[in-house]
Specification:
InterPro entries: ABC_transporter_permease (IPR051393), MetI-like (IPR000515), MetI-like_sf (IPR035906)
Main location: membrane
Protein name: Sugar ABC transporter permease
Shape: globular
Helix content: 55-70%
Strand content: under 5%
Keywords: Cell membrane, Membrane, Transmembrane, Transmembrane helix, Transport
Strand order of the largest sheet: 1-2
Order of helices and strands: HEEHHHHHHHHHHHHH
Number of strands: 2
Subcellular location: Cell membrane
Distance between the termini: 82 Å
Structural class: mainly alpha
CATH class: Mainly Alpha
Number of helices: 14
Largest sheet: 2 strands, antiparallel
Oligomer: single chain
Length: 307
């Protein structure tokens, strides 16, 4: 007796492929285009920013003169650094630079408010205030070296006697910082002029109708709209103060008696003059750590304010 045959089953069918829509293809093309546009910048950042930072941290644990084989010394460079009197002099000068550079954003804002007026000839005045920003640090250093010269400088003519500003350990750092504030204030002025052009004029007019003017207008209407610009001005000023180098190199070379040196110039001095690449890397890593702490703090504060 034959077993009953089961009913014929229909053949299994493969699931139909989901058609790719035109919008999906377009999004894929945009993603590929974005990748190829970003790839060169990412590679350059990796090669010229991230790799040097990591290699400098690595090198700070070695003793190396730049020619022979590096010798691993562990934390010896950092121990020597924290016992060197010049390090604390440079650190003190960096703090002084930092405090005095905090004057650049308020001064830049004051000049920007003055220049943000529709007055005949204001473009010429703007170009004069803008000029220090386009000058290189070497040129600014030479100009102020002549200005401070005790024999023929303009300062000696104004005071009626020669004052060796750059030759006196008490005044050298202040003289260099005063010279550096000139282009830094111009840079902050440009930032604030850009921010003033993006103000919400409806809010300004409404505040004027409510009777706001002068300090109340500036404090409650203009400054809140310039918050991001103010943040950027302070960040670039503080970073500029911590990485100051060119004016010191041109005007005093860290003297007299290393009284005007800062961490950036101290690192250069140890690497170029004394062939201490590992010790110089330790100085650079310390400076980078100081800058990184401040930048992270400011970024967290900005993100918290935006939330």
């Amino acid at each position: 007796m034959l077993a009953p045959t089961s009913a014929a089953q229909p053949p299994a069918t493969q699931p139909a492929a989901t058609p790719v829509s035109g919008s999906q293809r377009s999004a894929a093309r945009r993603n590929r285009a974005a990748f190829w546009f970003l790839a060169p910048a990412c590679v350059m950042t990796l090669v010229y920013v991230l790799y040097p930072i990591l290699y400098t941290i690595y090198l700070s644990f070695f003793s190396w003169d730049g020619m022979t084989d590096p010798k691993y010394v562990g934390l010896a460079n950092y121990i020597e650094l924290f016992h060197a009197p010049t390090f604390y002099t440079a650190l003190k000068n960096n703090v002084l630079w930092l405090l005095m550079f905090l004057l650049a954003p308020p001064m830049g804002l004051a000049i920007a408010l003055y220049l943000n007026q529709k007055v005949a000839g204001m473009r010429v005045v703007k170009s004069l205030f803008f000029a220090p920003f386009v000058l290189s640090g070497v040129v600014v250093g030479l100009i102020y070296s002549w200005f401070y010269d005790p024999s023929f400088g303009l300062l000696s003519l104004i005071l009626g006697q020669g004052v060796p500003v750059l030759g006196d350990a008490r005044y050298a750092t202040f003289g260099i910082i005063f010279a550096a504030l000139w282009p830094q204030t111009a840079y902050c002025m440009i930032l604030f002029l850009t921010g003033l052009t993006a103000l919400n004029h409806d809010q300004v007019e409404a505040a004027r109708m409510e009777g706001a003017k002068g300090w109340s207008m500036l404090r409650y209407v203009i400054l809140p709209q310039l918050r991001s610009t103010t943040f950027m001005a302070f960040v670039v000023s503080i970073i500029g103060a911590l990485r100051s180098f060119d004016l010191i190199s041109v005007m005093t070379s860290g003297g007299p008696y290393e009284s005007s040196t800062v961490l950036a110039y101290y690192a250069y001095d140890q690497a170029i003059k004394y062939y201490r690449q590992g010790y110089s890397a330790a100085v650079a890593v310390t400076l980078f750590a100081i800058m990184l702490v401040y930048i992270i703090y400011q970024l967290r504060r900005m993100l918290r304010d935006e939330r």
